[in-house]
Design goal:
The complex is a heterodimer of chains A (293) and B (337). Chain A is of the alpha/beta class. Chain A has helices at residues 2-25, 103-109, 129-132, 146-158, 184-189, 212-219, 232-244, 286-289, and strands spanning 32-43, 46-54, 70-75, 79-84, 94-99, 116-123, 137-142, 166-172, 192-198, 208-209, 225-229, 252-255, 271-272, 275-276, 283-285. In chain B, the strands form 2 sheets. Chain B has an 8-stranded mixed β-sheet with strand order 3-2-6-7-8-9-1-10, with helices on both faces. In chain B, strands 5-4-12-11 form a 4-stranded antiparallel β-sheet, with no helix packed on it. The chains are: A alpha/beta (293), B alpha+beta (337).
């Protein structure tokens, strides 16, 4: 019996060594392949794509990541671009939310279930969830920046008892541009306050109209920590508003978007002052980047 | 002088030595291209060791203008990837300033999250430095602390002391070459060592006289004082200054080929407008002036903060290739005068 265990252990170790030496052989620029296992349409130009990362034997690989990190996603022949992880590490599968912007995102969105794309990562620091535990959390976003915040919201929903009051304030251009509409109910059920607003309403809309800052006025969140992602103008306005409400600048975490080519702090495309957004970010506290926004 | 491993290589013996080395290694050396010294694979042509520092920097053999990161091959919906192993190489005639650039790049590309394509080339390259005894017109290595004296980081160090080269070894690989090729070398004489000191002292004096050193505080002040809109008007936006710089390492990545093909990386420049622009059209450094300022800040403030070394080695190539004849060092000097 014991003999058998030893043998199994030995073969397992050999397998691990083989995979490790395989990963040593190939550089950080060589991606893993990930199979598309599901595609959800979030809006007319945005898809939520579920992925199954594969090893060389076509077996599923579990990717370790935390909310706020991103992947370099590639379509071979078109190129590679940074995409936020939209899923929470507490649930399977790995998901990315892609909005049509250029030729690479168009290529990603043209994939069908069963196709593979390249992924590298996860990259970046992610939201400092350990620092957020035991405190109030306000999660505020606008536009496609909401994808990375969804990772954090679902992470919190799955660890709800570890956080104090949690509030989501989310704004989109029109009701059709709202993402993850089917999940708001589950967030509320988990004890998260959810506020939604749109810039421009249509006949079907019965909710709030206006900027996210006006939504915050109604919600009036108690000071604690905050996670922000969205257009720079919105982030600036929200961060200032939160500071006025008594939030401390180091407690306001902002996820930034930049042009990126490598994800590992070499290519210099994402530099912002002295920082590499890909390795030192994409999450920065407001006291660090407030002047650079 | 105590016992030293310094040897002497007669000028006559250099080419036979290279010919023997070229049997097992790719030898890269300064040669002439239309009269201009350039680093290229040596195929037996005349060497340009007496000329100024070549137009291109030897960093191109670690971070080429264009290189294949890997090849992708598709088979029934799945891909396999292939990387090319690096060549064994010897670079002859690298100057102290370029060696310093490699030290900076080692820090950026080799330590945290190593860059495999760079690191693998670096590991398989032997560096033979040539001491700069007659500095070029636009050189300012002494003001940047990157030359003309070099103490470490090379495999072999040559100094032209008149009838031949004083040869010093700086690594086990260098020592190995000296032993394996010992028939080309003689014992160095004390006067060779003395001549080396004399020539380097002269060179340092010459460079410092032409372009005195600036302190980090002076440079910071100069960057703040410079009217970047003025520089913007002169700049022709070619990006040549970055592409030729031995420390600049900006790159872009692109694919070529469907369904099989290769992922390439090409040198890029933070001075160009598309560099930081996102697909949405938003550009964090929208004006050329801001980008030129960033170019300086990165070299003189950000890289020093990260690596403890300046991001400029004073080779003067940026000013040499500038179509608008913008002298990078003079901009700083004039700003604080």
């Amino acid at each position: 019996m014991m003999h058998k265990d030893l043998k199994a252990e030995k073969s397992e170790r050999r397998r691990l060594q083989a995979s490790r030496s395989a990963s040593n052989r190939l550089s950080r620029y060589v991606p893993l392949q990930a199979e598309v296992i599901d595609i959800d349409v979030e809006s007319s130009n945005t898809y939520l794509i579920s992925l199954r990362p594969l090893d060389e034997e076509d077996e599923t690989v579990r990717l370790e990541y935390c909310p706020g990190q991103f992947l370099m996603v590639s379509v071979f022949g078109l190129g590679e671009c940074p995409i936020s992880i939209a899923s929470t590490p507490t649930r399977d599968p790995l998901q990315i939310c892609v909005r049509e912007a250029g030729k690479i995102t168009q290529g990603i969105m043209a994939s069908r279930v069963g196709d593979v794309m390249g992924i590298r990562g996860p990259f970046g620091n992610g939201f400092p969830v350990e620092k957020m535990k035991g405190r109030n959390v306000v999660i505020t976003g606008g536009g496609s920046g909401f994808a990375t915040l969804r990772s954090l919201i679902n992470y919190i929903a799955d660890n709800r008892e570890k956080f104090q009051d949690v509030t989501v304030a989310y704004g989109a251009r029109t009701p059709h541009d709202l993402y993850f509409t089917s999940e708001y109910g589950s967030w509320q059920a988990a004890g998260i306050e959810v506020g939604i607003t749109v810039d421009m309403m249509d006949a079907s809309w019965k909710g709030n109209v206006g900027l996210v800052t006006s939504l915050l006025k109604d919600i009036n969140p108690a000071p604690g920590t905050a996670a922000l992602c969205g257009p720079p103008m919105m982030i600036n306005a929200v961060a200032k508003d939160l500071v006025n409400r008594g939030f401390l600048e180091p407690d306001i975490y902002i996820s930034l978007e930049r042009h990126m080519k490598c994800g590992i702090g070499k290519c210099e495309h994402c530099t912002m002052g002295p920082y590499h957004v890909c390795t030192e970010g994409p999450i920065f506290s407001y006291d660090v980047v407030g002047d650079l926004l | 002088m105590t016992t030293t491993s310094a040897l002497f290589l007669d000028h006559e013996n250099l080419v036979p030595l290279l010919e023997e080395l070229a049997k097992t290694l790719e030898v890269v050396a300064p040669v002439y291209a239309e009269g201009e010294p350039v680093f290229a694979t040596w195929k037996g042509e005349a060497l340009a060791l007496d000329a100024d520092n070549p137009l291109n920097s030897p960093v191109e053999f670690f971070l080429p203008q264009k290189e294949v990161l890997f090849k992708y091959v598709q088979y029934s919906g799945r891909y396999t990837f292939q990387e090319e192993p690096p060549k064994s190489r010897l670079i002859l005639g690298m100057r102290p300033c370029d060696l310093q650039a490699i030290k900076v790049l080692d820090e950026i590309f080799g330590t945290e999250l190593p860059d495999h394509p760079y690191a693998s080339k670096r590991m398989s390259t032997i560096i033979v430095v040539l001491n700069c005894t007659s500095p070029g017109e636009g050189c300012f290595c002494a003001s940047m602390g990157s030359g003309p004296v070099v103490e470490e980081g090379f495999d072999l160090l040559l100094t032209d002391v008149g009838p031949g080269y004083l040869v010093e070894s700086g690594s086990p690989a260098g020592m190995f070459i000296l032993r394996a090729q010992s028939h080309h070398f003689e014992e160095a004489l004390p006067e060779h060592l003395k001549e080396k000191e004399r020539l380097l002292d002269l060179a340092e004096e010459e460079i410092t006289k032409r372009r005195p050193a600036l302190t980090p505080e002076q440079i910071r002040e100069a960057i703040d004082e410079t009217d970047w809109e003025e520089v913007e008007r002169r700049c022709l936006r070619c990006g040549g200054c970055s592409l030729i710089c031995p420390v600049c390492h900006c790159f872009s990545v692109m694919d070529r080929g469907v369904p099989d093909g290769e992922r390439l990386r090409c040198r890029d420049s933070c001075v160009l407008s598309g560099f930081s622009r996102m697909t949405s059209g938003a550009n964090p450094r929208a004006s050329l002036g801001e980008r030129l300022r960033h170019w300086y800040l990165d070299k003189f403030v950000y890289i020093p903060e990260k690596t403890g070394m300046l991001g400029c080695v004073g080779c003067g190539r940026c000013s040499r290739v500038c179509l608008s004849e913008i002298d990078r060092w003079s901009i700083l000097r004039e700003a604080i005068e």
